[in-house]
Design goal:
Elements: E1 2-5, E2 8-15, E3 18-24, H1 33-47, E4 54-59, E5 64-66, H2 71-74, H3 80-99, E6 103-108, E7 111-113, H4 115-122, E8 125-129, E9 134-135, H5 149-166, H6 174-179, E10 185-187, H7 190-205, H8 209-219, H9 226-240, H10 244-259
Helix pairs in contact: 1-3, 3-4, 3-9, 4-5
Length: 260
Amino acid sequence: MMHEVQGGYVQAEIHKGIATIEFFHPQGNSLPGKLLHELAKEIHSAGHNKEVRVIVLKSAGEKAFCGGASFDELMTIKTPEEGQAFFNGFAQVINAMRKVPVLIIGRIQGKCVGGGLGLAAACDYAIALEGAEVKLSELAVGIGPFVVGPAVERKIGTSAFSQLAIDATMWRNGDWARRKGLFAELHPTTEGLDESVFRLSTTLAASSPDAMLEMKKMFWKGTDHWDQLLTERAAISGRLVLSSFTRSAIEKFKAKAVTV
């Protein structure tokens, strides 16, 4: 089933116990609020479908896995409440990924920026292409990786997370991400990437759902407070996005993107 939203889409299909959820947006797979809402909804729905044993999360295209928050939408935010509501979209997706009773494999075929890095970190097992560079760019536009921070820090530790968050303009390559534990595997070709995703998802689809549920609980131990925590973090970003610093920085980023 496909849901087309704001020039992009979220679609899900189930085949032999594997739910494949794909998202797309023409602006580097960045995510406006409505796409985030649909993504959270599809993850929740697939995770609670009795036919589903494992979820594969992927995006369309070859260049970017996910460009993070939609700059166009950030520029339309007028109040702290609107800001919190937008950033809460990322909170809803991460919490859906955390709470579904099945494991999630991430197919990371390209760059992960900001919130996109948060989605990759919230996958239980991320398989990536060698060109999948990562960056937490939030500070460069006057905000910070507050909502996705807990997911990234949980996966790669405080030191590596703080390096990404502080040096917000620097790309880290796929090998760095693999060594830090963000990516479980790194493949030189798309064929190798897809073969590995297929192999693992097929294996998990034939594994014990009860055992995988207990493993998921074990992996995410200590995160029960995230519903509240990520909402509180969304309020911080929602306030900061209204600053003149952020408005000016986003305009510069957009102008640069248009001329490239």
